[in-house]
Amino acid sequence: MDVSLEVSGLAYAYPDGTQALFGVDAVIGKGERVALLGPNGAGKTTFVLHLNGILHGGAGTVRVGGLPVDPRDKKALKEIRRRVGLVFQDPDDQLFMPTVREDVAFGPANLGVRGAELERRVAAALERVGMAHVADRAPQHLSFGQRRRVAVATVLAMEPEILVLDEPSSNLDPASRRELAEILLSLDVTVLMVTHDLPYAAQLCPRALILSGGVIAADGPTLGLLADEELMAAHRLELPYGFVVPQPS
Amino acid sequence: MHGLPPHCKILATLGFVLAVVATPREQIWAFAAYALLLAGVAACARVPLGHVAKRVLIEVPFVGFAFLLPFLATGPRVEVLGLEMSQNGLWGAWNILAKGTLGVIASILLATTTDPRVLLLGVERLRVPPLLTQIATFMFRYGDVVVEEMRRMKTARAARGFEARDLRDARILARSLGALFLRCFERGERVHLAMLSRGYDGRMPVLLRADASGGQWAASAILPAAAAAVSLAAWMAQWTFL
């Protein structure tokens, strides 16, 4: 199996001394869809920011498609940031350009893509999330669900090796949530999804990791983990009222 | 008019304003000529007069001082409508009012015929430091977001029974403003992270090209050239008069 993401022994303490990660090990294969679960303060965001070298300086290594993340090697870092498509939780943070088209073009343009190829990438990325018709609109004039989808397009345009989504379903109404799920299922790309939305994880990701106390506490089929009441309780994970874990078929 | 490249229009406006400012204030006819030129531009661009008139009001606070000049300035006095005023002051007030209004109208025409985004591109094209244009671009993008945040805070205050009545409430408003500043600061940090994640290295990629043809340069030169001619004529008149 080709490996998209390989993390070993990743540890990190913030400059104020707070230790967030205590040696995280994880391997994600090409084309896998994996959910990263864990209670608030488990270190999920810290972990995600290591994947493209924004946070660094602790122990351990991260490799994306075989390429090690090394913050001193600027050229390799640029390639790492192409390979890891990070979709932030608040689309207003992610969409900072005056129009959707320019925003989607921002990433590939930073990689040196220009002209017809750039236009093709922008059009293709917007097409994949069903947002081609809003290309010339300003992000602030879109609905929240539309903005979230455009945010996904901004990283798809960079043709990433792995798509990393931070709370993709947060603040979405049920219809937008379902539409986003359909889009994510239609993408032919490795996905790592950080979420508190356990039914969403069950629907989209066959495999899940539980990050708790700065280490990977569990790694296995999502439905199996969610059905393990003891494990769930030990890591402050709870299923929403009325939700029954479907039986693995 | 709407289709001209933004940097041509910016330069044309600048040229026009310079010509106006350089005109001796005693040549009242010259200012009438400038006004006619602007009226011509507005007609060409099909900008309704009411639209311009409404926006000219923005200069009111700035020219307020001009109305005080006739009373405050020194020099020979004249009597106008039964009030004794300084002659110098009157000319000074006229000077500020006429030149200011013409400048404001020219800018309004520029802003009406140019999308703000495109205007920024034009400024960038004129080699204004990219840091400044980036700041303006972000203001343009996040203005609504910040106003929306401010509105939510106001709603939250009102929901808990707060209503600004007098100066003592300023303390609470100041605190809200401080909180808003912190939120904006934090958002700025998150936006920066998002930019870094997509390969930002300190320079914005140039995505839209705005090149001007010779014809477009010539078309946008008409206004400043005409204004320069009027200005020159005004100076000639001034000299022969002396």
How do you describe this structure in short?
Chain A has ten helices and ten strands. With 249 residues, chain A is of the alpha/beta class. The radius of gyration of chain A is 18 Å and the shape is globular.
Outline the fold blueprint.
The complex is a heterodimer of chains A (about 250) and B (about 240).
Chain A: E1 3-13, E2 19-29, E3 33-37, H1 44-51, E4 59-64, E5 67-68, H2 74-83, E6 84-87, H3 91-94, H4 100-110, H5 115-128, H6 144-156, E7 162-166, H7 174-186, E8 190-194, H8 198-204, E9 207-212, E10 215-221, H9 222-227, H10 229-234
Parallel strand pairs in A: 3-8, 3-9, 6-7, 7-8
Antiparallel strand pairs in A: 1-2, 1-4, 4-5, 9-10
Chain B: H1 6-21, H2 28-44, H3 49-56, H4 60-72, E1 77-80, E2 83-86, H5 87-113, H6 116-125, H7 130-159, H8 170-197, H9 214-241
Antiparallel strand pairs in B: 1-2
Helix pairs in contact in B: 1-5, 1-6, 1-9, 2-5, 2-9, 4-5, 6-7, 7-8
